[in-house]
């Protein structure tokens, strides 16, 4: 078996002791990092089945379909896994904003408090 064939085999994700892995959502076209959330085996399975991003809400302790209540869904073009198989990258087409604060990206502030992101919706009108 060649190296290319070995790499084509399905990767077993290491969900660790808590059963979750971090997943970065990145705009598939622009490369903009939109958000980070956590994924359970069930969330990954639902993402792969539906083509839309699913995560695990640690605060609510439940499966979460991104955009299920807001309509701001993420269509997943590709799911990548890092070299240690313990972090995922969702390459997505984002509908509306990714952040519950109304911003396109959750990374809309610098550590010094400067606002650098675009607000694309009013969360009071959506939630």
Topology:
Layout: H1 3-8, E1 21-27, E2 33-39, H2 41-50, E3 54-57, E4 62-65, E5 74-81, E6 88-94, H3 123-126
Parallel strand pairs: 1-6
Antiparallel strand pairs: 1-2, 3-4, 5-6
Family: Belongs to the PRA-CH family.
Main location: cytoplasm
Pathway: Amino-acid biosynthesis; L-histidine biosynthesis; L-histidine from 5-phospho-alpha-D-ribose 1-diphosphate: step 3/9
Description:
The protein has helices at 3-8, 41-50, 123-126, and strands at 21-27, 33-39, 54-57, 62-65, 74-81, 88-94. The chain is of the alpha+beta class. Strands 2-1-6-5 form a four-stranded mixed beta sheet, with helices on one face. Strands 3-4 form a two-stranded antiparallel ribbon.
CATH class: Alpha Beta
CATH homology superfamily? Phosphoribosyl-AMP cyclohydrolase
Q: Helix count?
A: 3
Q: For the largest sheet, list the strands in their spatial order.
A: 2-1-6-5
- Percent of residues in helices comes to 10-25%
Series of H and E elements = HEEHEEEEH
Q: Tell me the domain tally.
A: 1
Predict the CATH topology.
Answer: Ubiquitin-like (UB roll)
Gyration radius over CA? 16 Å
Low-confidence sequence ranges:
none
Largest sheet: 4 strands, mixed
Strand portion: 25-35%
* Name given to the CATH architecture: Roll
Question: What is the total tally of β strands?
Answer: 6
Mean pLDDT reading: 93
Based on Cα principal axes, name the global outline.
globular
Structural class: alpha+beta
N-to-C terminal Cα separation, in Å? 52 Å
Keywords: Amino-acid biosynthesis, Cytoplasm, Histidine biosynthesis, Hydrolase, Magnesium, Metal-binding, Zinc
Protein name: Phosphoribosyl-AMP cyclohydrolase
InterPro entries: PRA-CH, PRib_AMP_CycHydrolase_dom, PRib_AMP_CycHydrolase_sf
Catalytic activity: 1-(5-phospho-beta-D-ribosyl)-5'-AMP + H2O = 1-(5-phospho-beta-D-ribosyl)-5-[(5-phospho-beta-D-ribosylamino)methylideneamino]imidazole-4-carboxamide
